[in-house]
C-alpha cells in the first residue's frame, strides 16, 4: 500500500474530493500541519511514496506583493524539503501555494500577485499531458496569493484564461497545479472565515461560478487522478 505525506498550510484547505480517489485506490495519506503550535514539515526520510503540497489561503511566497507580501512562515524549510524530494525522485503533487514552492525548489520563481479567488477554466496545451488523461478543458478553481513561475525546462501542460501556467511538470513525476482539482465549495467558505484578509476580487461571482461547476469538477477529477497515479507510480 502506497503512503503519501501531505503538507497542509491552513485548516480549511485539504485534499477535498481527491481523498475519495486516493482511498479508492488504497493509497494512504497523512496530513502534516506546520501551521499549528506543535506541527512542522515532515522529514525527507519519512516522506513515503510521495509529497503533496497544498494551498495556503492568503499565504504566498513572493514577498513584497502589492497586496501586502505575506510569505508562509515555513517557506524556506518546505523549499528545502521539496528540492530534496526532487533530487531523490520522489513523486510530488503541488497545488496553489504548493505549486509556488515546487517552482522555487526547481530553480524557478514566483510572481507577486494579490490574493485571488476565482472559478474559471484551464486549457490543455500538450496532448500527452498526464499520460494523455488531462482534459482538453477543465475547471481551474484558484484561491491563492502570488503565482508560480516555473523554470524554463518545465513542461507547461495547461494554461489559464490569462495565459499563465495552470498545470506544469518538473521531470518525470512532479506536478504543479495553480488551481485545486478537488476543490469544494466549503473550502472557500472556510478560508474566508479562517482569515481576516479576504480575496481582492468579486467573491460573490466566484462563489456563484463555483456552485455551477460542482459536477464539472467531479467529472474532470476522474481522468486527472487517473493520469496522476499513472505518472507518479502510486498504483504500482
Structural topology:
Blueprint: E1 3-7, H1 18-24, E2 28-32, E3 50-53, H2 75-88, E4 92-95, H3 97-105, E5 109-111, E6 116-124, E7 137-144, E8 147-149, E9 155-160, E10 165-170, E11 174-177, H4 185-194, H5 203-212, H6 214-232
Parallel strand pairs: 1-2, 1-3, 3-4, 4-11
Antiparallel strand pairs: 5-8, 6-7, 6-9, 9-10, 10-11
Feature tags:
single chain, two-stranded antiparallel sheet, 236 residues, 6 helices, alpha/beta, nine-stranded mixed β-sheet, Rossmann fold
Major β-sheet profile: 9 strands, mixed
Q: What is the fold-level CATH name, i.e. the topology?
A: Rossmann fold
Rg of Cα set: 16 Å
Low-confidence stretches: 64-68
Give me the CATH architecture, please.
3-Layer(aba) Sandwich
- Report the strand count: 11
Helix and strand pattern: EHEEHEHEEEEEEEHHH
Helix content: 25-40%
Task: Spell out the CATH superfamily.
Answer: Class I glutamine amidotransferase (GATase) domain
- Tell me the number of structural domains: 1
Taken as a percent bin, the fraction of beta residues is: 15-25%
| Secondary structure category | alpha/beta
